[in-house]
Design a protein that fits this description.
- The chain is α/β, with parallel strands linked by helices.
- The protein has a single domain, classed as Glycoside hydrolase/deacetylase (TIM Barrel, Alpha-Beta Barrel), CATH 3.20.20.370.
- The chain has nine helices and seven strands; from the N terminus they run E-H-E-H-E-H-H-E-H-E-H-E-H-E-H-H.
- The protein has a seven-stranded parallel beta barrel.
- It is globular.
C-alpha cells in the first residue's frame, strides 16, 4: 500500500503575492489543500478565486505576529510564539484571549461561505499543551474533522523535534477522537522542494500511519513581484517561498513522489 500525501499551502491571506501564487496552484491542482488566515489584516479580497477551485479548505489560526480580531490582554498580540507560550502559561486572561480569538477567527471564516475541512495554526502553536485543548474543543464545536498534529514524528533536537514533543504531550493529556490527523512533513522544508532536498523530504513518509492520519507536505508559495526595499531576512524567506512555487511547478515533484512510493 502506498503512503498518502496531501500537499497543503499555508498562509493564504498573508499578502496579494502569496494569494496569487496559491490561487494559481489551486486552479491547476498542483496542490491539494489551502489553509486560510483570517486575522484582522488578512488579505481576503480575492478569496472568490480560491472558492472556485477544487481543493480542500482549512483555517490557519493566528495568535502571534499579526493583529488579532480581539484585543489582547497586554494590549498587543504576542510577536513571537515563545512570548505567546509565556503569557498563556502565566495568565488565565491570556488563555481566555486565545479561545476568544479562535472563536472570532472561526466565525469570520464561516462568513467566507467556504467549507471547513481542517484546522491548523501559524507556527503550529495549537500543538502547545495549554492551547491544544482549546482548539480541539472548538474544532468539535465547529464540526471540523481534520487537525494538524505531529504525534507520529520522533522527538529530536530541532524545531520539528520540539513541535513533536509538544504534540505528544498535548495528545496524551487531551487525546483526539473521531478526527483525522494531518501529519506535516514540511515543518522545516519551506523552500526545499527542489533537487536533493526534495528527495530527502519525500523519503520521509515511507511508513504507514493508519486510517486516522494523512501525511501532509506543507508549502509556502509566493509569486516574485515585490520591490527591492526589503530586509535580508525577508528576502531570504521570499526566496524560499519562490522555490516552493518552482518545486510545485516542476515535474520533479511528481517524479520524486512516484519514486518514494507516494500517491
Amino acid at each position: 500500500m502506498n503512503a498518502q500525501v496531501r500537499i497543503t499551502a499555508d498562509d493564504y491571506g498573508l499578502s496579494p503575492h502569496v494569494n496569487e501564487a496559491i490561487e494559481d496552484l489551486s486552479n491547476r491542482l498542483a496542490i491539494d489543500a489551502v489553509s486560510i488566515m483570517v486575522h484582522r489584516n488578512a488579505d481576503l479580497t480575492t478569496i472568490h478565486r480560491l472558492g472556485a477551485t477544487n481543493v480542500l479548505f482549512g483555517i490557519h489560526l493566528v495568535f502571534t505576529e499579526f493583529a488579532g480580531l480581539i484585543k489582547w490582554p497586554t494590549g498587543e498580540t504576542p510577536s513571537h510564539y515563545l512570548q505567546l507560550f509565556k503569557e498563556v502559561i502565566s495568565s488565565r486572561h491570556a488563555q481566555d484571549a486565545v479561545r476568544n480569538e479562535a472563536v472570532a477567527q472561526l466565525e469570520r471564516y464561516s462568513s467566507l461561505k467556504l467549507p471547513l475541512h481542517f484546522i491548523n495554526s501559524h507556527h503550529h502553536v495549537h500543538l502547545f499543551p495549554m492551547i491544544w485543548p482549546i482548539v480541539v474543543k472548538l474544532a468539535n464545536e465547529f464540526k471540523v474533522t481534520q487537525i494538524r498534529t505531529a504525534i507520529k514524528h520522533k522527538p529530536s533536537f530541532s524545531r520539528r523535534g520540539l513541535v513533536t514533543v509538544a504534540s505528544k504531550i498535548s495528545n496524551a493529556v487531551h487525546p483526539i477522537h473521531n478526527m483525522t490527523q494531518l501529519v506535516p512533513i514540511g515543518i522545516n522544508y519551506s523552500g526545499a522542494l527542489v533537487g536533493s532536498a526534495l528527495r530527502t523530504t519525500l523519503s520521509f513518509p515511507k511508513r504507514q500511519l493508519g486510517d486516522s492520519a494523512v501525511w501532509e507536505l506543507v508549502v509556502h508559495p509566493e509569486n516574485n513581484d515585490r520591490p527591492d526595499d526589503r530586509s535580508q531576512e525577508k528576502r531570504s524567506l521570499e526566496y524560499q517561498m519562490l522555490q516552493d512555487v518552482d518545486g510545485l511547478n516542476q515535474t520533479l515533484l511528481n517524479n520524486g513522489m512516484m519514486r518514494a512510493g507516494i500517491n
